# Entry
Amino acid sequence: MRNFRLLLGAAILALPVSSIPASASPAQAQTSAFASLSKRYVDGLARLNPSSATGLGDHRYDTQVTDMSPAGRARREAFSKAMLGDLQRIDRKTLSREEQVDAALLDNALRYDIWDTETLGGWAWDPQVYNDIAGSSLYSLAARDFAPWPQRLNAATARMEALPALLAQARANIVVARVPSIYATTVAKQNSGIVDIAESMLAPHRGELSAADAKRFDAALAKLKTAVAEHQVWLDKTLVPGARGDFRLGAALYDRKLAFALQSDLTRAEIKQRAQAAIVDTRAQMYAIARQVLGAKPGAVLLPERPTDAQQQAGIQAALALTYAKRPARDGMIDASTKALAQATAFVRDKGLVGMPDGPVKIITMPKFQQGVAVAYCDSPGPLEKGLGTFFAVSPVPDDWTQTQATSFLSEYNDYMIHDLAVHEAMPGHFLQLAHANATQSTLRAVLGSGPFIEGWAVYAEGMMADEGFMNGDPLFKLTVLKMRLRSISNSLLDIGIHTEGMTREQAMQLMTHTAFQQEREAAGKWVRASLGSTQLLSYFTGYSEHMALRDEAKKRQGAAFDLKRYNDELLNHGSPPVRYVRELLFNLPIG
# Structure
């Protein structure tokens, strides 16, 4: 599924249709028409989704909140249908190759938006939609220094005044009986995070406001706190006890959503078959490292080369136990992540693996309204934002966890895993890739970035760093990278199993804790994450597989002339479209 943070951006510089010279050739006219259409699409998205526009760098609507009323939803649907009609009147064959790719991405996005509104209809059963809008409305104003504090605080004031109406829209739109219980309980826990943003990130700077503006800010915050408290009562007393919907999407909806998400001919059955084979291969690689690591210990007995299933399981677990012993303190995740990021950055620069981006990365504690789904994420500035930093957000150990639960979590996110997370989320993973993308691709392509390309690159980056000797070639780091890869593969089986095959929590936990060697706390969190969404977890394995196949093809085509840095730079120069389109662009193949 497309990341909604990548859905909005700023206007593309383009000629309006009326300014096309009368002497323009048919091809020039089509190119100008597509440029104009692209501009109207991106501008319209910002106008109709102001809460998300801010985070992507379009600040024209910073005082507004996305309208989720029936009229607001109708306007967005009508916009998508009008755009699709205009796009269908353009002869794509006359466009440049890069524009043909952008047109294919836009066609897919418009059809998905229409299907999402008319068929999937999350606005009626997914309360996360409203929680995300409310949280991003304030967070995007508070997190980045795109303007002086008085300007941002006044915009936040206007949004705080509008957010009670959004929460009321949620209560009016949501059909309680259709909401899955896991959705209801999750949002009930996250709801107070909206006020946390206002009080912890915005209110400390109210002293920079004039007396009149500060008074208005205080009144808006008080109104917001009352509205959030009222909404919490509805969540606790009405939504949570009344939520009886099925969180499983079902095969028909899943397959359609999968086609939109991947923009690939891969079927669910093919992905499952490939994932099952990849699990066998990855576990064999892990066992080979376990034999090496454990066999090097004084007095050790070499593990058998051809193990039984039980011997393979025990050998890999014994080797992984060596990584679990090296873990940060309960409050040490941020410090450990900071050091790991510095080490990864220095390694990439010294090795010359890929062009280095400009701009800083700041490691932050994940905001409360986003906790409970992922352990870490990369939050890059939007395509229009220049000179602003990227956030590498890390979730803290929850305060209400027992020491046993915390130890389980930190055993999973041990020192080796934290280094791997720094690679995946930042260097040379998401931060580096998205920095390249925002610097080189069209704004439209930035808006419609492919999740499988983005996540696949990050998994690819992990393997590349291990292959190139990061952390002094420590085999335990290589083992950790393979464990993470095993996690990405099992994510696909988890997603397919839960949403189309009736996989139970017990079966999912067995897959994660036994087959993929995840700790109980990590597996429990992944069960929640997989239950709260669909198709996104497939993006890691499918994207990684496509990236590796593309690099292998480039090596075969180029032979001895293949250069890793040149390949990586050329790949990233095309932005973040699905890998299939990058392949067609790299090798001058027909688009589509």
